[in-house]
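In full, the data.
>
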Amino acid sequence: MNEPGRTRRSGAEEPERAATRSGGRGARRGQEAGETRADAGGRADAATRADAATRADAAGRADAATRADTGGRALRRGAVSGAVPPRRSALRARSFLGTLKALDALSAAGAQVSVRVADIDSGEAVLVGDDHLTLPVAGLGVVPLLIEVAAQIEAGTLDPLQIIERTAVDPVTVGGLWHQLKAPALPVSDLAVLAAAASDATAANALLARVGLDAVRARVEQIGLVKTALLDGFRDTRGPDDAPHVALASTGELAALFAALVNAHVVSPAVSAQVSEWLSLNQDLALVGASTALDPFAHDDDRHGLLFVNKTGRADGIRAEAGVIAGPRAGAAYALIVCFDDLSVAHRVRAHEAFRALGLDLMEYAY
């Protein structure tokens, strides 16, 4: 019997409905598969576009880097060849806090201090402290003497191979090597090397006797120095009739003088080069030069791009140094004079520490 309200499907209807249901599920599966494929294709396409963009961006950066590197190499080649003048960086702010702290401590202890540091290219002051004061500088007085010797050699009035007897001057043993050597006579050029490299008092006195103190003073005036003077030769003891000091100078003029020497502006390029060459042999690297780590006996090796030319002056209660330091970043001309109560080794050590602090700050400036 048929149940009321129900219609029984015929056997023909069941396969057809099954087929319909199967076809619907197949269609849905096909649609889902299509959507999946489309989504996968979209993601693949997006990934392809992103990868292409990434490759293009990387290629662009690589190309830019290549152009920059090529340009840098070209600039460096130009600088070497002279087509593009080499330029150090512009003046950079430097604190020089170590130097200021050391100099403040010296001043507080009663020492008289004068300092000047100026950029070697622009001449702009980097550090200044009482650089107008005229103070004793001891062996730094050799510098104007060497300038006069080089000028007379260039002028032909002084033979660099002229032999000078050691007995031509009074014996002096305050510094140097010649009084310890067996050679009783040396040529002018060798005496200049001894005076510059070893602060040789006997060699300096022999040169001064040969060229004349008046000629040195005239040369100092001729190059425009008004606070720098060579007063006397070196002496083991100074009497009441002797000049109280070998030489006087201000740090302002000393820094300017060394800058002019390395820039070939003193008397002539040849004279400037000769004096700079003599001074570059200086073996006293115990003050500012201690921070350069250069070999005091052979410091013309420029493998690290460091130029250092200096001269020191030492006497009881006096320490002075002037020079030029230049590195890859910048260059500076400097001068520092400290006059102090030379009462103990501790007083000297404190003075020397100020010079070494300046050396560290100068190295930071140059590098």
Notes: Confidence is low (pLDDT under 50) at residues 1-93. The first strand starts at residue 112 and ends at 119.
